C-alpha cells in the first residue's frame, strides 16, 4: 500500500519531523525491511528504536518514534504499537472500496495459520489476495499485513491470535472483518485463560465483532465453536463432518505420506481435492477455507485447485524425506495438547518400521503435567517412541537439544520421525539438522 508520511502523521495523531516522504508498506524488523517502507520500532525484549539507523541504512522511507527524532523523516508518537494499530485501521479503511465484504478474520486454538494459508490460496484462485505472513496475528502483525497489501487488493485474509481476553476485539477494531472463521477451541494458553470456556469466550470475540450483514463460519464438530452462533448477528455458515454442516466433509483418505484427499459437499457444488500438507485434521481447515471462498463468490472448483497447490507456512505438518531416507514430519512451529495428538495420529498413519517423536514442552497450560502425561500415553498406544527434549513433563528422562541433534544420524530408511514443540522449545533447529 502506498501512502505519504503526512498520512501517517494524520492517521496516528503524531507530528512529522523532516521532509514528507512517499512510503510503500511497513515493517517492524529492520533486517527484512524493503526500501521505501515505514519502519516501526517495537519496544519489547529489545527496543526497536535501537535499530532505526539500521532501518534508514536499508532504505526506510520514514519511521515512527516515541523518542526525540533523529535524522531522516520521522513521525513522533507517544506509543509506536498503538500508533501502528491506528495506522492499520486507516489502511483498512483505504482498502474498503476494493475489498468490499471480502475481509476474512481467522482465529482458533489450533489450525488458524493452516486455515489462513488454505483460505488465501482458495480465494487467490480468482481474486488478488493479501494475507498474513507466517503467523503475523497480533497487534503488530495484523496492521502490518494491511499496510503491506497491494493497492489493487481484492480480498484480505487476517489471522488473529490471542493470549487473553480483549485481544481479538482489539484486532477486529483494526481489521474490521466481514467474514469470521473459528477453527476450534482447545487447551492453548489455558494458564492465562482459566479453562476451555474462558478460551471460547476470548475466541468468540471475533464473531461478536462481525456486522449483521457479515458471515460467521463455525466448526460444526466443536461444541464450543458452534455455540458461538448465539453471540453474533451475522449469518452463520458451518463446516465439518457433522451431517448438518453447510460445508460437509464426506470422506477423508490418506496417502502413504499422510496427505489427505478430501471430498466435500457444499452449497456451491461438490468438490474433491488433495491437500499439500499432512494430517487428517487438515481436512477441517480446508473445509473452512472452501466455505470462505464460496462466500466470497469464488468458484469452489477453482478454490479446490488453489488449495491443492497452496504455499504453506513453514514448520507445520510438512512431510519430506531426509538425506538418509527417513520420513520427517516437521510440525515444530508450536504445540498444544490437541495439535500434538493430531501430529501423533498422523505419525502413526505413516508406513514405517519405526516411529519416533522428538517432543518439546507444550507451554502456557493450566495443568501441564496432566497434559504432557496424556500425550505420552497416546504415544505408547500407537507404539511411538517418545523422546523428550529439554523437559521432563512427559514422564521420562529428557535429553538436551544438542543431544537430540546428535541423534539425527540414527534415522534412515524405514523410520518415520516427528518433531514438535511449543515455540520456546525452538525445535526448528532439530529439523534443520536433518538436512
What keyword list fits this structure?
435 residues; alpha/beta; nine-stranded mixed β-sheet; 34% helix
Structure report:
It is globular and about 65 Å long. Helices cover 34% and strands 22% of the residues. The chain contains 16 helices and 21 strands. The protein is α/β, with parallel strands linked by helices and 435 residues long. The mean pLDDT is 96. The strands form four sheets. It has a nine-stranded mixed β-sheet, sandwiched between helices. It has a five-stranded mixed β-sheet with strand order 2-7-6-5-4. Helix 13 packs parallel to helix 14 (368-381). The chain has helices at residues 5-12, 52-57, 80-99, 112-124, 141-147, 167-175, 190-193, 196-203, 205-209, 223-226, 282-295, 300-308, 337-349, 368-381, 401-406, 428-433, and strands at residues 2-4, 15-17, 22-24, 26-27, 38-39, 62-65, 74-76, 103-107, 129-131, 155-159, 179-182, 215-219, 235-240, 247-254, 259-265, 271-278, 318-321, 327-331, 354-359, 385-388, 415-420. Strand 12, helix 10 and strand 13 form a beta-alpha-beta unit. The two termini are 38 Å apart.
For the report, how would you describe the main beta sheet? 9 strands, mixed
In the sheet with the most strands, the strands line up as 9-10-8-11-12-13-14-15-16
Strand content: 15-25%
Number of helices: 16
Distance between the termini: 38 Å
Number of beta strands? 21
Q: What value does the average pLDDT take?
A: 96
Compact summary:
This protein is α/β, with parallel strands linked by helices. The chain contains 16 helices and 21 strands.
